[in-house]
Amino acid sequence: GRVGLLVYLATRHIPDDELPEGNHFPTAASLEGLFAESGFAVVEQQSAAELHDPPADWERRTDDVEA
After folding, report:
1. What's the predicted TM-score (pTM) here?
2. Pure H helices in 15-55
3. Taking every pair of C-alpha atoms in the chain, what is the biggest distance, in angstroms?
């Protein structure tokens, strides 16, 4: 089957005392290792800078939830 993931990567070492509680940010190399170990393959990847803005309707729904 297929799986889609949104993964935030560490681009520098982040000391443990600076990490938000419960979060882990792998490096690109360690993420590749995790994929290799799991048997999954990266078919496509995109940087956050390349992503389009979400549709206006998504932002309206977010505003409704946060209100």
Report:
1. 0.61
2. 28-38
3. 43
Residue 41 is predicted with a pLDDT of: 87
**Cβ atoms of residues 31 and 9 within 8 Å:** yes
Q: 10 Å Cβ neighbour count for 27? A: 13
CA distances 19 to 13, 28, 36, 53, 65, Å, are 10, 17, 26, 27, 27
Annotated domain spans of the chain: 16-66
Question: In the numeric block, which tokens belong to residue 53?
Answer: 């803005």
Buried b (16+ CB within 10 A) or exposed e, 1-14: eeeeeeeeeeeeee
